[in-house]
Every structure is written in C-alpha cells, then in structure tokens.
Amino acid sequence: MEKAAALLGGMIDLPTIPAVAIQVLSLLDEPEVDVDDVAELVLTDQVMAARVLKMVNSPLYRPATEITSLKGALVYLGLRHIREFILTCSIIQCSEGKDGVLGVKPFWEHSFGVGIVARMIAEKVGYHDTEKAYIGGIIHDIGEVFLSYYMRDEFQKIVDSINDKPHRLVEAEEEFLGTTHCEIGLCIARAWRFPDDYCEVIAHHHAPQEAKNAPRLTAIVNLADLFCNVRQLDYGGKAWVSFSLADEPAWGMLQGSGSRLSELDIERFCYELDDRVEEIRELVGNIFKNG
C-alpha cells in the first residue's frame, strides 16, 4: 500500500470525481429527497446527464419505451439505484481520454461484463443486493486505468512479460512494481470516498478469502472477473489466465444455505454471457460517442 500511495502521490493530474456527482451523492444522503432536485442538479453537468440517458436507454437496462428526459430516467431507476448510476457515470467521465495499454473501450467492456456476470451470480447465490454486485463488478479494476495510462511503458512491459504464459496479471504487477492495480485502485477509491464494501471489492477481488467486511460480495466479483477473462470480455483479446472453478476459493465461499450455485450449468452460463457481449459493446460505444 505504501508503494501504491507513493505512485499516486507523484501524479499531479490525477482525475477527480466531478463536483456535481459529489453534490448529488450528498443530496441522496438526505432523509427526504425530491427527484426533481436530483434531476436539476445532474442537468448542470450536461455530459453526465447525456450519459445517464444513453445508459438507461441501452439494451442492458431495457426500458419498455425510450426515455427522453433526465427526470424520467431517474424515476425509472428509482432513488435506490441513482447513487450507483451516478457513481458509474463519474468513473467513466474520469477515464475518458485515458487510452493506454488496455484502451478505454476494452476496459469498460470488461468492466460492464464483470458487472453483469456479478449480478447473475448474485441472483444464483441469493445475495441480498444484486445491484451492489453489479456496481462492484463495474468498478473493480479502476486501478488498471491508472497503470495503463499513467504508467504506460512500465505496464506494457508487464503485459508483454506474461503473453502466452499462465501467469496472472496481478502477480506480474507485484513482481515488476512492488504493488498491484488492486492496491492502487483502493487508494483511488478511498480518495474518492467510495463506500467501504466497494473499497474491499477493489482491494481483494483477486483474493476474496482476504476480505473481512464483504467476503461474499468480493467472491461474487472474483468469479465474475474470471468468467469474463476467459470469454470475449478480456480486454480485447488479452486473456492472461484460465481457471478451474473447483480450485477457486470464491466458489467454496459462495456455497451454502440458499445458494443455487451448485446447480449452475457452466457451459450454458458461458453461452448466456457470450450472448450479452454485443449489448455490452453497443453500450460502451454509445457512452463514448460524441463525448
């Protein structure tokens, strides 16, 4: 963590969450929130407002008819989910123009893929908040944006070093840098005042057994990440690792009362994920189209 903090501390142009997002998140903390007030505040940031509409009208969210107003989008989402939606749009805004070794679009295709699979797994294991699993999946790799863009040369060497080798990227990061995208992401998440459970997902999504406060959530995101890394949502063809479910700590952590994970048809599950790939790519393409 000291190395991660030192690397971040040496950067003078690190992005920050838009001021409007911070104000919206504060407003949502108030006991009685009026959706009109939230909409009025979001509209002061036209980029964010446009992205909210693009996302809510995408195939992933499937409204019955096109939603054309921001207030309509917020009502459709419901106050419970506006916070997560604004948080996601804020991170997207922070990463825009940060094409690096991974590329911003492949990064977000992977991130949304992990979010979708995390929600599917959360439903299978009876996790109490599937939307939380979805957001945890979306934000789990924010540390990769930093490494890919701000440390491009070093990160390229790391990626090259494990091409066609059965090594995890996180292990190569530790070897080359003395820190990982997990620790760097945790530093960023704390600076942006993310909720504790999301911080834990970011810090431990490669080692869910080390999670203390939200182990099930972290295990869900871990499995989702692994599924996406061996299918078509692997950072544009940079699949670094294969895995066996039986050998994964997360698989054992998610068994138990109320879980239907043992009934999961893995082959069918993977085909279902493949069917969502084009929807995810369309969403990411629309998000980054025309700003």
Helix content: 55-70%
Q: What is the number of helices?
A: 16
Overall average residue pLDDT: 85
Report the sheet with the most strands, covering strand number, pairing sense and barrel closure: none
Spell the H/E element sequence.
Answer: HHHHHHHHHHHHHHHH
Low-confidence stretches: none
Radius of gyration (Å) = 18 Å
Strand elements, count: 0
Q: Which term fits the overall shape?
A: globular
Secondary structure category: mainly alpha
Q: Give the N-terminus to C-terminus distance in angstroms.
A: 34 Å
Strand content: under 5%
Summarize the topology.
Blueprint: H1 2-9, H2 19-28, H3 35-42, H4 46-56, H5 70-77, H6 79-95, H7 104-125, H8 130-139, H9 142-150, H10 152-162, H11 169-177, H12 181-191, H13 196-204, H14 215-229, H15 249-253, H16 266-287
Protein name: HDOD domain-containing protein
Domain HDOD: 14-208
Structure in words:
InterPro entries: HD/PDEase_dom, HDIG_dom, HDOD, RNase_Y/CdgJ. Residues 14-208 form the HDOD domain. This is HDOD domain-containing protein. With 291 residues, this protein is an all-alpha fold. 64% of the residues lie in helices and 0% in strands. The chain has helices at 2-9, 19-28, 35-42, 46-56, 70-77, 79-95, 104-125, 130-139, 142-150, 152-162, 169-177, 181-191, 196-204, 215-229, 249-253, 266-287. The radius of gyration is 18 Å and the shape is globular. 43% of the residues are buried.
